[in-house]
Amino acid sequence: MSTATAGGPAAPGRPGPPVPGTPRTSVVRTRPWLAWLFLLPALVLLGALVVYPIVYSVYRSLFDAAGTGFVGLDNYVELFTDDRILTAIKNNAIWVAVAPTVCTALGLIFAVLTERVRWSTAFKLIVFMPMAISMLAAGIIFRLVYEQDPDRGVANAIWVGVHDTFSEASAWPGARPRPDSGLESSGGGSYTTAAAADAADPADLPLVGVPPQDLTGAADAEPAESADDGGVSGTVWVDFSRGGGGEPGVIDPGEKALAGIEVEAVRDGEVVATATTGENGTYTLPAEADGARLRLPASNFTEAYNGVNWLGPSLITPAIIASYVWMWAGFAMVLIAAGLAGVPRELLEAARVDGANEWQVFRRVTVPLLAPVLAVVLVTLMINVLKIFDLVYIIAPGATQSDANVLALQLYLSSFGTGADQGVGSAIAVLLLLLVVPVMIFNIRRLRRERS
Description:
CATH class of the largest domain: Mainly Alpha
Number of domains: 2
Oligomer: single chain
Family: Belongs to the binding-protein-dependent transport system permease family.
Helix content: 40-55%
Membrane topology: Multi-pass membrane protein
Distance between the termini: 53 Å
Number of helices: 14
Order of helices and strands: HHHHHHHEEEEEEEEEHHHHHHH
Strand order of the largest sheet: 2-3-9-6-7
Protein name: ABC transporter permease
GO biological process, one term: transmembrane transport
Number of strands: 9
Main location: membrane
């Protein structure tokens, strides 16, 4: 066996050192088939799961519901003439314009503000936690949150509580005068006596229409005593006896009093006196009420405030967008917070030294430096909302599902719902692809600019 000598050739069996300036060759360059061999499984999956469905969807969109008759572009014409699909397109535009913007803005605010508090990690954990919940579970949660009944729906429970804090509830909602009681409707839900009140006679005001369960705990009605100062007195009660019997217009034993009813004395269109019934249903008006007509204002009978119809036609889309923001604001916050951690603090301090206030530092330094991260978050969320399906399908009730419709949901309904037409469904799929492609191209160009 020979060894290499100084300046001589290398010993047999050992590669010599690379000669400076000689281009290095790789296995991929010398054996390109090897690279294609490694890429083949990925290309097969890409073709089967991405390319083939796209090509077939375009092909299928040119045929009728049965898939046998060629209709050309008729399915695409239907996309812009069918009211349901037009509603879905409009709602998708609202989603793309509102949801990503709100999520990104909230994420930016949370990321910047939590840097200044000691419990920032706990706050970020709580905000990000909804991301661990599936869309299905989140939809079920918010379907319950938006229930109309305040006893079941959290949103209306809070809303009704705030409303009732500043606005008193009616005393006996749904109550109405007994026929032939002398009370006539005076407009706006109020009732006024046909005859003027007389201090010599009790002005009893019989009502009906109060559910028996609402009278649980109510005291028995009692006849009113005559007022000493020449005023007007009377009783407001439920003129109904359980089991039948009793005389109309007369306070029979066991009939219940209506406490808290407001009684007004009206003369020439002006209220001259008011009184409120006590626990036994009696009230007493001062002498000014003598000769005036008595009125029960509408505030006594208006139905209790039942909150907002969150799942109604006008609010269903904003309500579902709010549930989406609840889930994805944490995602935006985490990404923006990661980008904020890489912002040079020297630039922020230099801006403060130059006299900039915190708002100017945020607007002119922090936001421009975070622009690439904000673009990533915004584009990601835009692509995500274009294919939103789960939340709309679960939260929107059947009566208003058409008002909350989006393209992904309409694709499912057109393809597999009643009167399925997979030609139209395929056309919707192609439209969704065309809407996503510009966003993807923008994202790819942005990534290339950042690398260059």
